[in-house]
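Help needed: design a sequence for this.
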């Protein structure tokens, strides 16, 4: 009967389970963090350190979090935690954007379901419902963010609807008011006829839309050239409803045009043989094809500049006795020959280029469309018709006047409201603006600030720069109810804006005391004081653009909370915020403080499905982070965030999450292996670096290399590279090599052996570093592992990344062991083939002969190659290897001749050695020594 030596083997012991069971364990860890006040302890631990402030771009308080929100918040938490562990003080004040159309739209929809009219409800009551709606969703989202493992000052977040914030936002606006920048003007802005308000570019999304296209003739009544006499200029438009608002035709001064005489036409053509048409030469063939003009002849070719001074007649002239005004031909630098006719009809009320050209030449800007999209009385023949139903009535009227040349259809990208999803129009209305140019030099300051800011990735700089270079004046007014009012007074007779610091101070004080509702609930005379009479002033009830709200948070949050700093170290949001929060914050700060409110801006992509498609309910590919946490746990989601390049769109799907889960299991098992083999480790057991075997010193060298990478990648926010490197280190350097090699020593060496002490010392260093390095991402798993090893500890998240001794770094040793591992790879390849052919079972049954070259022989000198290859013996062969020797193409100069190990199997370590037969206890010499040492300790 064989002896039982199981009790003498040091098998791993740990309470850290192999099965993560994250959905059940994580909530308890969240509760523990609450109980011990982790966020407060982090602040206390970091007191006096250099501050790193990531200013939270506020999510909108109107629904459950989605995958994009989860990605954003997790990435922010990873940044904050890593900066804290790098030795910074990284406070995190979460915030919420509470004002604006989405919430107002939701309350309006509830009203509509009940048959109520929103406009019949007192403003203060309506705003109260909006506030309650936002408060409810803030509580929901706060709990969801905590469940993701995000640590912050959740008890004291900022909200744009807090009274102090509303007062601060108004005071930021007042800076533009008092310095003379804020002005009211009539401009063509993007308008939602469904939501009845102007929209900012950031509130717009583009979708394919089918438009009716028209080619329309404008008869020339006073041509600039004789050959134009009796002819018509031809325009092309994708918005037939804007034709009644036409006031000019634009041409390109450098474009070549032709006067052509129409010859033969198709049967259904609206063109008339013999008529003269003016069209850009480059567009003539396509226009003729669209209009069914079969033949034509060129009468004259000339430059666009020759059209200067020409006057046309409106194509609807005479309709109900109207449209009899002159239509001048004007030069427009926006006219091209890419589409259309090379001539553009100009409706100053309904286009940005049109409006600016009209301003330059004093064109009339009629109020042709009401806020809900119906033609006004200034559109004879069409009054009361909705613009989205106007195409056919306009077409019929043009036909009746003989000015329609052709019609068609075009599918193109068209602006839509991101809330109602309805198409938008351009509409000239009286709005409030902050100028980009002029005395304030806002554009110039913003461009300089962009150049002074770090952008990650770098391409973000060019993107926002292009936007700032071309953007028009900032429209800061909205015609809504829920938000901070644009609280100004305008003199009724002079139109002058009241710019009085005392009035501003009274308004701000009221907002601070009662919130912005005070603008509607207080007597306006109390704001004006004794110097002004209310009957002389118009009280403006427009609402501030919500992007001005969030763009002011650098002032209302960073400058007001002592634990933060201005400017922020980092703004971090999705790439769409180049036109949103990054943009408005930049303009607001440059306008009031002359520089950007951030030192660095980091952007991430969008979450898409496994095929790269945008998530939508219609496709059925929407993934909920709440549901995923119920099945996978938050740590899997957090690892998913760093598993790809977040600067690009990030894919998610079943197979992707399964791959992430596999990676997670390898990382968890690495921690479990370390914990199991560190059971009972004490400081007395620790071995100095200089006394360690080469293998352990190589592992510490690799740790030193990784330590440098950890710090650099965290500084660069390059988390994909970092966590790929950590995973590769765990899977390849540790599990597949070091753990495999040292398992025998850890299990079977006597407790006080140098080799075992060195290994356990290295395992301790590995655990401390891997737990800390992984902590910003695997926040729950590392906390569980840390407390498993040190139950009395507070939290791994209160630790810093461990400092690494410079003596650990040994590049020469690293190169040597790369060579050793290449030799080992050939040996393990040969043994794997032997197992496959069933000539051996375990590698310990082998004692191969290894042939190597001089350099490899020098590298292997003094090393126990059998130990490294996990065989019972190895001999270095002399001379040329036999032809049948095993080799690998990518490892030249190494050949292995497999052979069976001589001797008997040790009953404790399972090595096959001749010495085992020398004793009747079935042990090898090493195991006999270890068993005796244990017996002596236990005696």
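Sure. Designed sequence:
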């Amino acid at each position: 009967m064989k002896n039982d030596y199981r009790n003498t083997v040091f098998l791993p012991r740990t309470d850290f389970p192999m099965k993560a069971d994250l959905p059940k364990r994580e909530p308890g860890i969240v509760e523990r963090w609450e109980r011990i006040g982790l966020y407060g302890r982090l602040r206390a631990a970091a007191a006096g350190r250099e501050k790193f402030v990531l200013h939270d771009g506020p999510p909108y308080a109107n629904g459950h979090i989605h995958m994009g929100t989860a990605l954003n918040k997790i990435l922010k938490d990873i940044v904050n935690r890593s900066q804290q562990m790098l030795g910074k003080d990284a406070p995190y004040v979460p915030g919420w954007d509470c004002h604006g159309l989405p919430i107002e739209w939701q309350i309006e929809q509830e009203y509509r379901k009940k048959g109520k009219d929103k406009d019949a409800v007192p403003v203060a009551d309506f705003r109260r419902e909006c506030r309650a709606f936002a408060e409810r969703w803030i509580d929901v989202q706060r709990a969801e963010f905590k469940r993701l493992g995000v640590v912050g000052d959740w008890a004291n977040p900022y909200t744009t609807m807090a009274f102090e914030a509303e007062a601060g936002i108004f005071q930021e606006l007042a800076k533009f008011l008092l310095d003379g920048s804020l002005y009211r003007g009539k401009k063509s802005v993007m308008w939602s006829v469904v939501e009845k308000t102007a929209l900012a570019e950031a509130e717009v999304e583009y979708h394919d839309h089918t438009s009716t296209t028209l080619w329309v003739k404008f008869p020339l009544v006073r041509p600039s050239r004789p050959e134009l006499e009796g002819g018509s200029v031809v325009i092309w438009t994708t918005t037939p409803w804007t034709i009644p608002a036409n006031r000019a035709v634009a041409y390109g001064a450098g474009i070549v045009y032709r006067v052509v005489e129409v010859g033969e036409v198709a049967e259904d053509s609206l063109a008339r043989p013999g008529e003269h048409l003016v069209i850009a030469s480059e567009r003539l063939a396509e226009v003729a094809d669209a209009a069914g003009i079969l033949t034509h002849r060129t009468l004259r070719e000339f430059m666009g500049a020759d059209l200067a001074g020409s006057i046309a007649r409106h194509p609807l002239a005479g309709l109900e006795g109207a449209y009899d005004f002159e239509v001048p031909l004007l030069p427009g630098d926006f006219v091209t020959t890419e589409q259309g006719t090379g001539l553009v009809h100009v409706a100053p009320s309904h286009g940005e280029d049109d409006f600016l050209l009209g301003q330059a030449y004093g064109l009339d800007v009629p109020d042709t469309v009401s806020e809900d999209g119906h033609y006004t009385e200034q559109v004879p023949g069409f009054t009361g018709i909705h613009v989205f139903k106007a195409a056919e009535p306009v077409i019929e009227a043009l036909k009746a006047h003989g000015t329609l040349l052709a019609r068609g259809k075009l599918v193109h990208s068209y602006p839509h409201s991101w809330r109602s999803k309805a198409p938008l129009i351009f509409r000239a209305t009286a709005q409030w603006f902050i100028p980009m140019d002029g005395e304030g030099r806002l554009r110039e300051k913003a461009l300089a600030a962009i150049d002074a800011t770090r952008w990650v990735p770098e391409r973000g700089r060019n993107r926002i720069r292009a936007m700032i270079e071309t953007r028009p004046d900032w429209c800061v007014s909205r015609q809504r109810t829920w938000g901070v009012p644009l609280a100004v007074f305008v003199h009724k007779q002079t139109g002058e804006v009241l710019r009085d610091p005392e009035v501003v101070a009274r308004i701000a004080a009221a907002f601070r005391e009662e919130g912005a509702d005070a603008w509607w609930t207080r007597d306006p005379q109390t704001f004006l004081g004794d110097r002004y009479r209310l009957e002389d002033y118009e009280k403006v009830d427009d609402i501030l653009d919500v992007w001005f709200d969030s763009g002011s948070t650098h002032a209302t949050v960073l400058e007001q909370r002592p634990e933060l700093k201005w400017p922020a170290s980092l703004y971090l949001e999705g790439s769409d915020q180049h036109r949103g929060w990054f943009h408005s914050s930049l303009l607001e700060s440059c306008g009031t403080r002359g520089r950007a409110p951030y030192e660095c801006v980091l952007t991430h992509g969008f979450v898409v499905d496994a095929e790269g498609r945008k998530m939508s309910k219609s496709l059925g590919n929407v993934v909920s982070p709440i549901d995923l946490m119920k099945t996978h746990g938050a740590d899997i989601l957090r690892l998913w965030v760093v598993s790809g390049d977040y600067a690009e769109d990030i894919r998610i799907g079943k197979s992707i999450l399964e791959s992430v889960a596999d990676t997670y299991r390898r990382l968890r098992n690495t921690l479990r292996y370390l914990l199991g083999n560190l059971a009972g480790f004490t400081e007395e057991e620790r071995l100095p670096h200089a006394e360690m075997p080469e293998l352990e010193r190589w592992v510490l060298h690799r740790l030193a290399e990784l330590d440098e990478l950890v710090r650099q990648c965290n500084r660069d926010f390059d988390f994909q590279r970092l966590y790929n490197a950590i995973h590769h280190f765990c899977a390849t350097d540790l599990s597949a090599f070091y753990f495999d090699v040292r398992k025998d020593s850890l299990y079977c060496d006597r407790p006080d052996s140098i080799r075992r002490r060195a290994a356990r010392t290295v395992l301790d260093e590995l655990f401390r570093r891997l737990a800390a390095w992984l902590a910003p991402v695997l926040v729950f798993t590392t906390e569980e592992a840390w407390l498993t090893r040190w139950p009395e500890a507070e939290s791994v998240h209160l630790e810093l990344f461990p400092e690494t001794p410079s003596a650990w770094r040994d590049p020469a040793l690293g190169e040597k062991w790369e060579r050793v591992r290449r030799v080992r790879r050939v040996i393990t390849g040969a043994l794997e083939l032997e197992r496959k052919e069933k000539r051996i079972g375990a590698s310990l049954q082998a004692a191969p002969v290894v042939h190597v070259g001089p350099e490899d022989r020098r590298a292997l000198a003094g090393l126990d190659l059998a130990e490294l290859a996990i065989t019972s013996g190895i001999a270095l062969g002399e001379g040329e290897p036999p032809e049948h020797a095993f080799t690998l193409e990518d490892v030249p100069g190494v050949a292995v001749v497999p052979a069976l190990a001589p001797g008997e199997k040790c009953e404790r370590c399972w090595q096959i050695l001749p010495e085992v037969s020398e004793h009747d206890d079935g042990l090898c010499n090493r195991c006999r020594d270890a068993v005796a040492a244990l017996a002596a300790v236990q005696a």
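The longest helix spans residues 719-748.
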